[in-house]
């Protein structure tokens, strides 16, 4: 955690910037730095109706020069009464000559007048206790100061028995609407590794007022499975693999017992970039010489001859162990499955990483059916995780996520940026399941990636015996609370509950005690999902209702619970997340509505059914390279947005982390794009973890990523508070990732695809570089249109606006055009509030043809899809017109075969018009659109 000094006056602030730029001559830096702060003050006052006092003496959180663009990025926070204002941010970006080329701020006007006294009522020690109480954590024990300082600068306490890291505490102001509140900012890395809190408590009362989480997790409630006729992988039950767990731990101490057969020195056997999982590529030998010498000059692994001797001892406690482990300057990868309660996070251990031996041969036998705790599988997964984190480091550094901007390295190459913050990549983490997360504290503190095990729902089997109408094998999904089936088996008689109050005969379990409590006792409680609106006012089918039902069944003596979906026609399975906060001690599973109502009918007909659940072998998230890339992506977007010393600029508490989810999906898709693919190809997130066929999905998201509007028709209006609109973090992130994915492919169509990810050429490389540059330029806590504007500004500054028209057309196509309205993005307003989509372009920007293949023909700025069409063809365009557009379909002889009623330009831009092609003969046709500005056409195919 950085401790920021307090200064007064521009000259001292200039000195702070100069000191943050080692290697520069101080006398030469003072004047330009003073000019930067002076320019900020002038522009901020003109833009925000601020007083001179409002912009005087801001805190410089970070300032650095980007070597790839020549731009200097200076990030600021407002300061009042000598204290930083947490959520009042600004930035000024200058070129090599010192000219301000971009600027933003959201300082509070008249701040001094609404700021209370800077004298706190609580001591820093009391603030830690108040934060712990507000976060529902234990009270600190034996709390002691380890670093003294002024309260405005920060004081550091020991871990106090409640944090994985020392606890920084700092006095500051928090902006609440148009007032300021004096607060203590307290940072606690929760022991269960599920949260890394940066919390603000009232400095007078101790009440928790605000918090943001440096840990970004995936929502397991959105992990859905579409049941297949046959399991995609034929795997032995986990019960057979569990016995190997003790062997796995032993094998990592002597990895030779899990060795493969290649015997290639100085290499790893992994799923190589850009392949997403073992479903797409066999494992191959990758030499350690693959480490890019420009971005990893010390190599990837501690035993590399390029690594300075013994400088890893402090970081990894290797001492004289003589082991060659999956540890290096960029990442330490290790097994963290030791406990299912907290995970051990023990990066210093020399026994929880595979040992490549004296030859550094990291080849380990991989046999998926044996389960993830098989010694070879465990070592192979950790090695794969190590390789991908290193590749991500090098590739992203080549595009501008470097030392000075806050990347993850133990020892920096130069003198800029802070080191000692390699990624702790924790494989098979024991603190959760069916999930993954990444923690991004500020530069100089470790990033932490936690990859979990995932249920193999396709191989989970619920065996039911009894009546012939119900007997058979059924798929099921597990839940993240309560005991695992490996510890408490689910077996016994199925008893349909009767709560006496809910519909459908009372089988929803909405009240306790059950009418048939005596029958439920000692058996499996069979409960229908939903039907209990009193459990949640927002969603009767929500996860917390599920946990409450399980607890009620437990209270009625049930040995276990099976919940079936209330939608009887569905075959979807959901892995319910959530933390057990209600004392659940019995196992529970979830089955589909189609299966559940089949079993229910047999029970209601008088049948006696008995059931036994058997788990399939878990999937290891360390082999899903898309998810690994997604998690690493959170570190990128959090360090770049608002500068490396401020990891609170994608604040999940205000809804802005939704864009972080979008960037992470984009990075994952980008890293796993293979030569020969096309933008219209359906791409999915986490098909391996989800147990889905790669080309079929659905993965973790609601729709595939595709430039084909017939497959993914998301627009800006998908966000909002109306029924059916997206508000959840990952849902909203899908929309942002969709438009970034469109942009990536338009760049590829314009500049080509380059399989060399370190190159500056190729549309894919240019697009990634633009996205990273945009993150550096955009405002703190951005909205979608802020993100768009950051990309436009980056293109203007680095490419002389060569792609501005293309960027505008891509965003306009998805409803983020010139007249779109973002709504309020500050003071806690979620991103989904007050948005208005628009499909227009800035005056003077022409509508251009967005190239497309395999599903949508786009010519003269027209889209016609699907192509080939069968019964319905949708025609859409971003063209403008002062009169309604006439849409016709002609055969090759020029005869009009279909004509739509004239369509307003707004409708054509938003949803287009549908043409009924069911009566047309198969063949080639021409779609013609007549506007006030001219006539445009494109060819389409109809096939029946």
TrEMBL record:
Coiled coil, from the record: none
Keyword set includes Zinc: yes
CDD domains linked: M36, PA_subtilisin_1
UniProt cross-references to Pfam families, sorted A to Z: FTP, PA, Peptidase_M36, Por_Secre_tail
Main location: secreted
InterPro entries linked to this entry: FTP_domain (IPR011096), Fungal_virulence_M36 (IPR050371), PA_dom_sf (IPR046450), PA_domain (IPR003137), Peptidase_M36 (IPR001842), Peptidase_M4/M1_CTD_sf (IPR027268), Secre_tail (IPR026444)
Keywords linked to the UniProt accession: Hydrolase, Metal-binding, Metalloprotease, Protease, Secreted, Signal, Zinc, Zymogen
Subcellular location: Secreted
Transmembrane segments: none
Residues annotated as domain FTP: 59-107
Residue ranges annotated for the PA domain, each copy included: 491-598
Cleavable signal peptide: 1-27
Cofactor: Zn(2+)
Residues of the Secretion system C-terminal sorting domain: 865-941
Family stated for the protein in its record: Belongs to the peptidase M36 family.
PANTHER family on file: EXTRACELLULAR METALLOPROTEINASE MEP
Protein name per UniProt: T9SS type A sorting domain-containing protein
Organism: Hymenobacter artigasi
């Amino acid at each position: 955690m950085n401790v920021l000094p307090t200064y007064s006056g521009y000259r001292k602030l200039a000195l702070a910037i100069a000191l943050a730029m080692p290697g520069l001559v101080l006398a030469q830096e003072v004047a330009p730095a003073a000019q930067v702060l002076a320019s900020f003050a002038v522009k901020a006052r003109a833009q925000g109706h601020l007083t001179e006092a409002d912009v005087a003496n801001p805190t410089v959180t970070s300032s650095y020069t980007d070597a790839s663009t020549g731009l200097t990025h200076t990030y600021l926070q407002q300061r009042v009464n000598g204290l930083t204002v947490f959520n009042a941010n600004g930035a000024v970006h200058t070129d090599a000559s010192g000219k301000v080329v971009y600027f933003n701020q959201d300082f509070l006007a008249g701040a001094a007048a609404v700021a209370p006294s800077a004298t706190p009522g609580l001591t820093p020690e009391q603030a830690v206790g108040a934060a712990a109480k507000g976060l529902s954590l234990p009270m600190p024990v034996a709390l002691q100061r380890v670093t003294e300082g002024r309260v405005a600068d920060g004081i550091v306490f020991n871990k106090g028995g409640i944090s994985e890291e020392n606890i920084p505490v700092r006095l500051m102001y928090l902006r609440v609407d148009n007032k300021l509140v004096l607060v203590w900012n307290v940072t606690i890395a929760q022991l269960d590794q599920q949260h890394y809190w940066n919390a603000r408590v009232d400095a007078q009362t101790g009440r928790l007022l605000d918090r943001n989480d440096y840990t970004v997790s995936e929502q397991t409630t959105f992990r859905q499975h579409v049941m297949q006729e046959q399991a995609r992988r034929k795997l032995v039950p986990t019960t057979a693999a569990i016995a190997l767990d003790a062997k796995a731990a032993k094998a990592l101490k002597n990895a030779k017992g899990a060795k493969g057969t290649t015997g290639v020195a100085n290499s790893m056997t992994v799923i190589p970039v850009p392949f997403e999982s073992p479903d797409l590529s066999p494992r191959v030998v990758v030499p350690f010489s693959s480490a890019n010498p420009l971005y990893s000059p010390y190599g990837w692994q501690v035993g590399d001859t390029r690594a300075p001797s013994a400088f890893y001892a402090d970081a990894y406690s290797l001492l004289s162990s003589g082991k060659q482990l999956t540890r290096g300057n960029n990442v330490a990868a290790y097994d963290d499955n030791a406990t299912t309660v907290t995970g051990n996070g023990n990066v210093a251990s020399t026994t929880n990483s595979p040992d490549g031996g004296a030859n550094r041969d990291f080849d380990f036998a991989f046999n998926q059916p044996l389960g993830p705790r098989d010694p070879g599988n465990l070592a192979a997964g950790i090695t794969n995780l190590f390789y991908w984190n290193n590749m991500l480091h090098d590739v992203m550094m080549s595009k501008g996520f470097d030392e000075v901007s806050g990347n993850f390295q133990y020892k920096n190459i130069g003198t800029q940026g802070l080191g000692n913050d390699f990624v702790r990549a924790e494989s098979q983490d024991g603190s959760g399941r069916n999930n993954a997360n990444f923690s991004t504290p500020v530069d100089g503190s470790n990033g932490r990636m936690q990859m979990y095990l995932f249920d193999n729902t396709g191989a989970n089997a619920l065996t039911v015996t009894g009546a012939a109408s119900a007997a058979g094998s059924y798929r099921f999904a597990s839940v993240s609370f309560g005991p695992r089936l490996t510890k408490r088996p689910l077996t016994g008689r199925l008893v349909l509950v009767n709560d006496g109050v809910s519909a459908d005969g009372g089988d929803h379990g909405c009240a306790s005690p059950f009418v048939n409590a005596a029958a439920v006792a000692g058996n499996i409680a069979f409960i229908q999902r939903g039907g209990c609106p009193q459990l949640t006012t927002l969603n009767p089918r929500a996860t917390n209702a599920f946990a409450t039902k399980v607890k009620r069944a437990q209270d009625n003596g049930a040995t276990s619970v099976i919940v079936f979906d209330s939608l009887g026609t569905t075959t979807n399975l959901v892995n319910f997340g959530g933390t057990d906060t209600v004392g659940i001690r019995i196992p529970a599973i979830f089955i589909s509505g189609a299966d559940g109502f089949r079993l229910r009918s047999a029970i209601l007909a008088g049948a006696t059914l008995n059931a036994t659940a058997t788990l399939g072998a878990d999937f290891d998230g360390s082999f899903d390279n898309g998810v690994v890339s997604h998690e690493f992506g959170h570190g990128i977007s959090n360090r770049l947005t608002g500068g490396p010393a401020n990891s609170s600029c994608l604040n999940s508490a205000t809804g802005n982390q939704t864009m972080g989810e979008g960037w992470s999906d984009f990075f994952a898709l980008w890293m796993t794009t293979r030569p020969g693919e096309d933008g219209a190809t359906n791409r999915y997130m986490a098909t391996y973890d989800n147990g889905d066929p790669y080309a079929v999905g659905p993965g973790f998201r609601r729709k595939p990523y595709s430039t084909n509007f017939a497959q993914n028709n998301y627009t800006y209006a998908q966000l909002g508070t109306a029924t059916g609109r997206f508000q959840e973090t990952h849902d909203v992130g899908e929309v942002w990732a969709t438009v970034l994915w469109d942009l990536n492919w338009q760049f590829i169509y314009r500049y080509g695809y380059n399989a060399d990810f370190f190159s500056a050429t190729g549309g894919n490389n240019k697009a990634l570089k633009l996205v990273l540059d945009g993150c550096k330029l955009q405002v703190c806590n951005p909205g979608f249109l802020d993100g768009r504007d950051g990309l436009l500004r980056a293109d203007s500054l680095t490419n002389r606006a060569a792609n501005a028209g293309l960027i505008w057309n891509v965003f306009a196509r998805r409803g983020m055009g010139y007249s779109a309205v973002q709504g309020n993005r500050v003071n806690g307003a979620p991103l989904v509030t007050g948005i208005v989509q628009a499909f227009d372009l800035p005056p003077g920007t022409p509508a251009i043809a967005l190239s497309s293949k395999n599903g949508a023909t786009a010519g003269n700025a027209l889209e016609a899809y699907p192509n080939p069409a069968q019964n319905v063809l949708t025609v859409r365009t971003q063209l403008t017109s002062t009169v309604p557009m006439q849409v016709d379909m002609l055969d090759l002889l020029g005869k009009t075969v279909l004509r739509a009623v004239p369509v307003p330009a707004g409708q054509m831009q938003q949803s287009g018009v549908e043409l009924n092609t069911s009566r047309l003969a198969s063949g080639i046709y021409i779609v013609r659109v007549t506007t006030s500005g001219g006539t445009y056409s494109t060819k389409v195919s109809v096939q029946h």
